[in-house]
Amino acid sequence: EKGGFKHFMLKEIHEQPRAIRETLAGRVSLDDGRVYLDPTKIPDSAWEGFRRVVIAACGTSWHAALVGKSVIEELARLPVEVDYASEFRYRNPLLDEHTLVVVITQSGETADTVAALREAKHRGCPTFAICNVPGSMAAREADGVLLTHAGPEISVASTKAFTSQIVALYLLALYLGQHRAVLSAADVRAHVEQLLALPTKLEATLGQDAALAELSKEFFRASDFLYLGRGVHFPIALEGALKLKEISYIHAEGFPAGEMKHGPNALIDERLPVVMVMPREAGNPASEVRYEKTLSNLQEVKARDGCVIAIVTEGDTQTATLAEHVIPVPAASDALSAVLAVVPLQLLAYHIAVRRGCDVDQPRNLAKSVTVE
Ligand code: M6R
Q1: Number of the ligand 1 atom closest to the C-alpha atom of 156
Q2: Which GO terms describe its molecular function (predicted)?
């Protein structure tokens, strides 16, 4: 049942290229330059007129929501707010019929997320669920559903559901963009080409498995870890930290790299591993600026004797001379490099947890689906 892998988590990490192929299948057309989603109860006129998107989710799905915010704002030019479902439901949120409320949930059964969905419906908002389980509560109750076809996820630590959620959010962004006429067929086609190239790049990234197993030998005794990133890589830093704490019980925190001077710098010493998520899209000015700024954060960490593990784009020689350890991922657009960059973080957490003798698939105190508050 584990397909020759020692744990479900490792199997599911390796299933990511397939999960993404399946999530894209039948939904994108290079010929038409369009994205096709299943019919929803939301009329076309509403899709054309949304003024705002609010996303509610928990845990790893909330990290996917943060990536989704960047992608939807960039591609559909709509403002997006991201909320923890547990906060949204008790917050008296400002909502109206021009707000699309999106919930993201692998299981479709998370109590807070389902409650957020019901609250949004109650207030008359169109609702949309990104969900991995057909027939689950969220999938049944939302006005529109985009199923991630990741297949059953058994490991408590979410991996393939996360990367599939990012791809689903990308599709939603393109769908909104084409309805709002901010994206032409040629624009959509260019994005679809990048999405279709992603599974092969993920396969190449999975080739780093042995290198990360090796790296885990050096770091499995650490008591704390810091994860840093900017832009779309900040939620990836948060996700890397969550993976590590949940399965290895090592304390880990994620920060936007630009926040270091505002407090976290005080934590840095020679015992603190710092994982810096810093791929770069050549020719994208915003990405280049973020990269340069993160590179100076790296120099600051080095000046304080911190030990850096950098996740970079293949061919990045600048970082190679500065960081102790460099894990390259294939070149991709800024948004899609988030999907590639999380893979080494999943593998690092996995190998560290195995070395510490932890119950990887069933970490203490956690359940796969949180159906009670
Ligand atoms: O099924 P959901 O996506 O609604 O679950 C949300 C969280 O409980 C879940 O992502 C949790 O954070 C994972 N254990 C993280 O690996």
Answers
A1: 14
A2: glutamine-fructose-6-phosphate transaminase (isomerizing) activity
